[in-house]
Specification:
251 residues, alpha/beta, five-stranded parallel sheet
Length: 251
């Protein structure tokens, strides 16, 4: 019977049903399911398979480290972090509302882990996302001027529901960077969310643009109705290195 069903299932693009058909058939016989119950279970399996494939695709396109999740985030290391605020953000209502999230704190306190974890949650909830370092994005956009692909490259960062810009301010912006960053912030304003991490305090951000007018206009849009997450405390990476160092070794 499976061989007879195969061509029809493939034509209908339902060949995934074959993965659980034998098991469900056995369960139906033993449980005396009705025909409708049997069909419903097969269709439930197919819907779940497709949902998992779509999730895997969203995560791959988001370019995140799949091990960086909220389940693996150590909230106890820096107790000053508002855990309830992070859990509220994990519902991704900010993505639905097209609001931004700004995560600030010194190096090593978990900003990137947290950003990737929230990106993962967004993917789980059906949103499209892209995680990238701010400097790398601006280099990629600027490269489009040389080969005539500027608009197409810009769309890469305008299309996702959530754009995650990591390490803003870690490196000086490239020559065309301030203008390109403003364009992306402006085009996404109230159309899509930005999650930005930075080891610089927000009051330092205007100087990074090098242009007071662009800085004022861009940061006004970026911070409007944004959720601010401030992480203080020790560096988790330094703590791990000290813990792993051989006894007597000076770090």
């Amino acid at each position: 019977m499976t061989h007879q069903l195969m061509p029809f299932l493939k034509r209908l693009r339902l060949s995934g049903i074959l993965e659980t058909l034998d098991v469900r058939n056995t369960q139906a016989i033993e449980g005396q399911w009705s025909y409708v119950q049997f069909l419903a279970r097969l269709l439930e399996d197919e819907v779940e398979r497709r949902a998992q494939r779509q999730l895997a695709l969203r995560i791959r396109r988001a370019a995140i480290n799949t091990t960086k999740t909220l389940e693996g985030f150590d909230f106890s290391f820096n107790p000053s972090l508002n855990r309830q605020q992070i859990l509220d953000l994990s519902t991704c209502s900010f993505v639905r509302q097209k609001r931004n999230v700004l995560v600030c704190g010194p190096t090593g306190v978990g900003k990137t882990h947290l950003a990737q974890a929230l990106t993962h949650e967004a993917c789980r909830r059906g949103y499209t996302a892209l995680f990238i370092s701010t400097y790398k994005m601006l280099q990629h956009v600027s490269g489009g001027r040389a080969d005539g692909t500027l608009e197409r490259r810009l769309q890469t960062y305008l299309r996702p529901d959530l754009l995650v810009l990591d390490d803003f301010g870690l490196k000086p912006l490239p020559p065309a960077g301030p203008g390109d960053l403003y364009d992306i912030i402006n085009e996404r304003y109230e159309r899509g969310s930005i999650l930005l991490t930075s080891n610089r305090a927000p009051e330092e951000w205007p100087d990074l643009f090098g242009d007071p007018l662009l800085a004022s206009a861009g940061l006004d849009r970026l911070t409007h109705r944004a959720h601010i997450v401030v992480i203080t405390g020790a560096s988790f990476r330094t703590h791990v290195l000290e813990w792993e160092a051989p006894i007597g070794e000076v770090m």
